[in-house]
Structures are given as structure tokens and as C-alpha cells.
Amino acid sequence: MDRNSLLQLAETYGSPLYVYDTDVISSQYKKITKAFSKVKNVKINYAAKALSNLNILKVFNKLNSGLDTVSIQEVKLGLLAGFEPKDIIYTPNGVSLQEIEDVAKLGVQINIDNLSILELFGQKHPNIPVCIRINPHVMAGGNSKISVGHIDSKFGISIHQVPHIKRVVENTNMHINGIHMHTGSDILDIDTFLRATEILFDTAKQFKNIDFIDFGSGFKVPYKTDDISTNIEELGKKLSKRFNEFCKEYGKDLTLMFEPGKFLVSQSGRFLAKVNVIKQTTSTVFAGIDSGLNHLIRPMFYNSYHQIKNLSNPKGRERYYSIVGYICETDTFGSNRRINEISEGDILCFHNAGAYCFSMASNYNSRYRPAEVMMHEGKDYLIRKRETFEDIIRHQELVI
């Protein structure tokens, strides 16, 4: 993933281009498992929504990871990638009972976050074990769009509704085998996260036959030089100690689960784009690239920061640029960034492009989605072809 290698990949496969390094993925996976090595039973379920290419899923399967899914399509991708049904957990939100039942037929772990669906599912399928997603009413996360555990969130069943959950369980005689929460992404305050875990422990005590507790994820990774991130080692030390204490109180060795996505794949990814135009106005110098929010929407959607470097001129004098896309809408990747002098035809590299980048890409403006390349054991592999015009019209039907 050094400069020369990336430039060669851009030459070979064209731009724009996503590139993923599996060495980084493996390193991040080992980092989190090591942090919780003091717990007897730990299961890391990779959040497929972050990056769902089948080849990436296969990498996680070979690492002995589980898989966290939010749709029946992600479940099917996981099965196609070789995951056993028992290693997949399905945590939807706002889906129909029919989809949940269809997923249940595939044999994966079901996680329900809605009282009415819980009751309906329990009445029809009392013998299928179910995990409960709790909303701990804890505000966490770096952006309102990714803070999902607060009181006004659509996710989870309120901790104040636990008596209702217990009533449903008693009436249906269904089996609750796990308790789950997810507070939000970009967690920095470990103490706030630990307070939320205490809420989860208190909830777990009220269910006598659970097998696991899923603490979600949301660990922050660095986006720029000297950026702060979640201290996973400190969290591992503190939570492992408390989890082991809880298992003794509960009288059973439970499994500690996490479902990281960004933490595992964000830093593995690079996004390469070519500069189409340099445009100077009275106040700004724009570098317009052959991409836009249709390929990388995070800066516009989450106000997220992606470090941008000029691979073609790494020693040029630094100037200030606003990096913008070719979409007929304001799609600014970075404003007034200090970057080595940019010329038309240069290749720019966006860092932290592994998570929620290609997976959120679209065909807006009828543009093609880019190709994906995976660096694995020293070799580069094309793992998704660049789209063509035929892909744009493939499912359209002319009726007039």
C-alpha cells in the first residue's frame, strides 16, 4: 500500500478505485481479540454493512470471525462466503416479521429490537432462541446520525420496557439466549461506554438462561496524523475484569460479543481518484476529481474527515485546495486542505476508505460505481469489476 504500489494499481485498474489491504484487517482483528484475551469465551462478529464484498467476508471467515448482519441479503452473502449459520447474528431494524422468519429458516442467531415483533415471533416460533436488543438510553457516538443508543433512537427496546419483555417471554414461553446493545460509532469516552455495559449487566440478570452478551461496537479509529482513537487495550482490561466478575455472579461462563465494522476495515482501505480540473475562483482553488458523493458520501453525510494525499507529487510545495467531485450537487471531500501542489491528471489518495465507503456508493447522476482491488499476501486481485453502461440499464424495462 505504499505510494508506488498505489500508483501502479491506478495505472493497471483505472480510477476511481478502492484498494483494501488484508494485512491491516488481520492486524486489527488480532488487536481486538488480544485486548479481550482474559475472557474465556469471546466472539468478534464483523459488521458486514461496513464492507460486504464476498472476498473481504472470506478473509474474516478465515480469521475465525463471526458475522454481524442487518439484512437477509447480508445473511445470504455470509453463507455464500462460507460462514456457518451459527456464526452469523442478524440484527435488523424496522423490517417485517416475514423477513425475520425467512432469516430464521436459515438457522442464524436472531436479534429483535421491537416489542410487537418480539411478541409475534414468540407466539409463532417459541422454540427458536432470540437475542434482545436493549436501548440503554446512553448518548454516544461522534455524530447524531451514528448515535443509536439514546432515548430518541429508533433502535432497541427501552430499558424501561424490560418488564414488558419479560411478560412477552412468560406468555409465549420463548427462549431469550442473549442480550445486546449498540450505543453508537466513534466512541472515545470509555467510562461512558462502561456505564452502558452496567445497564446491560443489570438487564441480563433478569434473564436466567442467556448464553451471551453482545456489547455492540463503535470503536473510533484515527483519521489523521496524531488523531485520538478508542483505547481498545484499556477498554479490554476494564471490561474483561467486569465481565468475568459478572459471569461468576451469574453462575455461568457467558460469551462476550462485539460487532466491529469500522474498527476492522476502515484503515485497510484507500480510495484513488484522478484530478480532472484545477479551478481557481476569487477565494478558492478547487481540485475537481473523477468521483463524487456517489462513490464516497461520508464527508457529505457525516461530516467525516478523510486524509487526502497527492501520490503523483509527494514532494511538491504545499498549497491549499478544496477537493470536490463531479456530481451536479455540492460534493466537497475537504475544504482548504494543505496538500502538495496538484496538477490535472494527478492521482489523489483518500485514507480510511475501507468502511462505509464503497458499501454506500450509488449510481447517482447515472455514474458507474468503481472497481475494488484487494491486496492479499503480496498480490493484488480485482474483486469487483468497474460498472459499465450495460449495468446501468440492466434492470430497466422500456414500456413506451
From TrEMBL:
GO term, biological process aspect, one: lysine biosynthetic process via diaminopimelate
Residue ranges annotated for the Orn/DAP/Arg decarboxylase 2 C-terminal domain, each copy included: 18-354
Record's keyword annotation contains Membrane: no
TM stretches of this protein: none
Cross-referenced Gene3D superfamilies: Alanine racemase (3.20.20.10), Lyase, Ornithine Decarboxylase, Chain A, domain 1 (2.40.37.10)
One MF annotation (Gene Ontology) recorded for this entry: pyridoxal phosphate binding
Keywords: Amino-acid biosynthesis, Decarboxylase, Lyase, Lysine biosynthesis, Pyridoxal phosphate
Catalytic residues (UniProt): 328 (proton donor)
Pathway this chain belongs to: Amino-acid biosynthesis; L-lysine biosynthesis via DAP pathway; L-lysine from DL-2,6-diaminopimelate: step 1/1
InterPro entries assigned: Ala_racemase/Decarboxylase_C, DAP_deCOOHase_LysA, De-COase2_C, De-COase2_N, Orn/DAP/Arg_de-COase, PLP-binding_barrel
CDD domains associated with the record: PLPDE_III_DapDC (cd06828)
N6-(pyridoxal phosphate)lysine modifications at: 49
Domain Orn/DAP/Arg decarboxylase 2 N-terminal: 25-266
Residue numbers binding substrate: 298, 302, 329, 356
Function: Specifically catalyzes the decarboxylation of meso-diaminopimelate (meso-DAP) to L-lysine.
Assembly with partners or alone: Homodimer.
Recorded family membership: Belongs to the Orn/Lys/Arg decarboxylase class-II family. LysA subfamily.
Protein name, as recorded: Diaminopimelate decarboxylase
Organism encoding this protein: Tenacibaculum holothuriorum
Gene: lysA
